[in-house]
Amino acid sequence: MRIGIVTSIIFLLAYQIIAAQGISVSPFSDWRIQPQPNEIVAGNDLPGTYTTAPDHMRLSVELGGDLKNNKDNKKWEVEVQRVDLDWHRDLELYVRLTGEGTGPEKAKVVKGGEVYQRIERSPDEFFKCKGWRYDIPIQFELRGVSLLLPAKTYRVEVLFTIIDD
């Protein structure tokens, strides 16, 4: 069974459209899960939960012009949602921040996002921030992986929306 979480398509398109605003997301790659032979034991199910590296993806945001007030005080928030391409209802995808990234010292304000949040099909607030931030680390977790799921490739896109306050 292979489960792929496709993040590159939406991030790549979003980056091209809003590059002038100073928003970037990396990496532009897919997260692919393929249970290993040692995880398949007669009479047992799979571990059920798979997690990316703590900094699997990084988000950098510079909103507003290159003014001191924007760098320190510009408020913005991030919403997250999923777009099911070929997804099973028993699979649950979660996301969280594993750090605040870097930026101007006065702008060191990231609120929310530190605990795993289930990604739904409708937009939900992920976290809020103030000022320019660089390399905010993002981690994903997939729950519900089981040998009981039909053997196939499951795909979902994750969409992050940055809202300028």
* Biggest beta sheet summary: 6 strands, mixed
Radius of gyration: 17 Å
What's the overall average pLDDT, rounded? Answer: 79
Secondary structure: helix percent: 10-25%
Count helical runs.
Answer: 2
Explain how this protein is built.
- With 165 residues, this protein is mainly β.
- It has one domain.
- 10% of the residues lie in helices and 44% in strands.
- It has 2 helices and 12 strands.
- It has helices at 8-18, 68-73; strands spanning 2-6, 23-26, 31-33, 49-51, 57-61, 75-86, 92-97, 109-111, 117-118, 124-130, 133-143, 153-164.
- The strands form 2 sheets. Strands 3-1-12-6-10-8 form a 6-stranded mixed β-sheet. Strands 2, 4, 5, 7, 9 and 11 form a 6-stranded antiparallel β-sheet that branches.
- The N and C termini lie far apart (42 Å).
- Mean pLDDT is 79; it is low at 1-6 and 8-20.
